[in-house]
Design a protein that fits this description.
This protein is of the alpha+beta class. Helix content is 59%, strand content 17%. The protein is built from 13 helices and ten strands. The strands form two sheets. The chain has a five-stranded antiparallel beta sheet with strand order 2-1-5-4-3. A five-stranded mixed beta sheet has the order 6-7-8-10-9, covered by helices on one side. Helix 7 packs antiparallel against helix 8. The relative contact order is 0.05.
């Protein structure tokens, strides 16, 4: 709706501007006609002015002409002011709308697409292409090839020669829009169209070049070139801002990846490193004391070591799953895989339940959540003496709640927290790092319940799905 109103406003002002220009260009003819009309009237009123040498005739003609010259001068100034005003309105309106469109673009590709679409709102355009300036190599390289006026469909894929105006190493010597002889235009239009270079500079800094192929063989009008020239810097500003955002996003992604690697390395060191160290120690002990120990004790010890090796393998497997997280791996499946290892090792019956519609969770959040869950099951295994445990995942649009219950011996939560037992601080620390909460409910002889609450970040796609569900 805004675009339609803008185009209508632009066309209306353009028509008025053309009418003013036409009248302005014909002003001499208008002056001659008015002067002729005045003289004709005076001759009609004073037919014998030449023979009588009528003073009245010459006085009236002089007054008329003096008044007429003053009016003509005022008309000249008014017309120039009106034309300048209309052109200023068009330029300011175009710059405002262009800046809004570029700032509203979601990513770099959308910014480039809107830049390629822009010339078609000013003049009849057949195709556009965009070259971006590389400050390191001091060259222009092709960012987007020749596309139609919508900036979407590639018209012709050509190999641009090095000496072509559209070559990646072409340098623009002048900052003004100028017509060029482009080999690509010849291939596209059979030499029936014209091509313009539109340099995009942010101050003295080059940003890129917008190449424009007209939809006709007639050159662009002066007003169109002026409008494109006046908005070139706005395009450059928008592109420069998008480039900075893209570079900043690349830095943030690199930092996030680095932090992720450090986090994984720390987690692997804290868990896998300890497990492997313990395995190494026990195997050395068996080798040195194996002959002194009974066969049954050795089998039991080897079973524990095998379980520890399985746990280490599962840790590595879960880490890889998190790194390659996709919709194929649901959280309950990851939880259940670890729960079955505990069940097989201890004989504790672990049941899993899920309520609500599962949502996606960022890999780092999933990793922290999985470690908190494993720590909860580890506490059940080592300290509760339970025979069964239940795990329930409850999903809502805004959060995930996980309840982990066992029928074990229970304990005094206050005393255990103060003493730092059961790894409760580990669970609380990991969940709080995600903006969630961890709550422990327990009392001696009544079992234990761990409640983990985690806020969810809902994507735009999921918001649309939620609206559809309503």
């Amino acid at each position: 709706m805004d675009t339609t109103l803008h185009n209508l406003k632009y066309k209306t002002i353009s028509i008025l501007d053309k009418a003013y220009n036409l009248l302005y260009q014909l002003r001499l003819l208008v002056l001659i006609l008015i002067a002729t009309f005045i003289i004709a009237i005076e001759i009609y009123e004073h037919p014998n002015f030449l023979t009588d040498r009528s003073r009245i005739f010459f006085i009236e003609v002089s007054i008329y002409y003096a008044f007429f010259l003053i009016a003509a001068l005022m008309f000249e100034l008014a017309m120039r002011a009106s034309i300048a005003k209309n052109q200023t309105i068009i330029i300011l309106d175009a710059r405002h709308n262009l800046s809004q469109k570029l700032s509203a673009a979601n990513d770099w590709d959308e910014v480039v697409t809107r830049v390629l679409q822009y010339p078609s709102s000013i003049a009849p355009v057949m195709a556009t292409s965009f070259l971006i300036y590389d400050p390191v190599l001091d060259v222009y390289r092709t960012e987007r090839g020749w596309l139609d006026s919508d900036g979407e469909n590639e018209i012709l894929s050509v190999t641009m020669p090095r000496d072509s105006c559209c070559s990646a190493d072409y340098r623009v010597m002048t900052p003004e829009i100028h017509m060029i002889n482009c080999e690509t235009v010849v291939k596209i239009s059979n030499n029936k169209c014209l091509c313009y270079h539109m340099p995009l500079n942010y101050g003295d800094m080059p940003v890129g070049i917008l190449n424009i192929i007209t939809a006709q063989s007639r050159p662009l009008e002066a007003e169109q070139i002026q409008l494109l020239s006046n908005t070139a810097e706005d395009i450059a500003i928008g592109l420069n801002a998008a480039i900075q955002r893209r570079e900043q996003q690349a830095i943030e992604i690199a930092n996030a990846a680095s932090n992720e690697r450090l986090e994984i390395a720390r987690d692997l060191h804290d868990t896998l490193g300890q497990n492997l160290g313990y395995l190494h120690f026990k195997l050395d002990q068996i080798l040195t004391e194996g002959e002194k120990r009974r066969k049954q004790e050795l089998h039991a010890e080897l079973d524990r070591l095998r379980d520890l090796a399985n746990e280490s393998y599962e840790l590595v497997r879960n880490t890889l799953v998190i790194l390659h997280h996709s919709s194929e791996h649901r959280i309950i499946e990851l939880f259940n895989a670890h729960a079955q290892i505990i069940a097989k090792r201890t004989g504790i019956i672990v049941s899993m339940n899920e309520e609500g519609l599962p949502r996606s969770i960022p890999p780092n959040n999933l990793k922290q959540l999985l470690f908190a869950f494993k720590e909860s099951l580890y506490n059940i295994e080592k300290h509760s003496g339970a025979s069964q445990a239940k795990v329930c995942l409850s999903w809502t649009n805004s959060h995930l709640k996980i309840r982990i219950w066992d029928d074990g011996c229970g304990f005094e939560v206050k005393d255990a927290t103060n003493d730092g037992h059961y790894g409760l601080h580990i669970i609380d620390e990991r969940i709080r790092s995600l903006g969630g909460t961890a709550k422990i409910n327990s009392s001696p002889g009544q079992g234990t319940e761990v409640v983990l609450w985690l806020p969810l970040i809902v994507s735009d796609v999921e918001k649309i799905d939620m609206i559809g569900e309503l």
